[in-house]
Amino acid sequence: MSYDVGMHGEYDPSQVSADHIPVKKLTIGTWNLLAKYDEHVLLSWYWAERKLVWEVLHLGVVRKMEVDFEDISQVTLTHDGEQHDKLAIELHRPPRFFKENPPSAVSAGQQEVNYVYTTDFTNGQASTESRHVLLFDTGAITRDHTKRMQTGGIRLILEGLGGGDSAARGVGEPRGLMRVGGGVHASSAHLRQPPTSSPRLDAIILQDQLKREMRERQARYTGICPVRERIYAVVLDELIASVGRDESKRGSLLRRLYAEARMTIDSYRTVYETSIEFGSCKLTQAIETKGTLAEEIEALEADISRLQQEVRQLTQLCEGLEHREAEKERSYEEEDPETVALQAEQKQLNDLLVALRPSKPEKGK
Question: Which domain holds residue 135?
Answer without folding.
Answer: 1-103+111-183
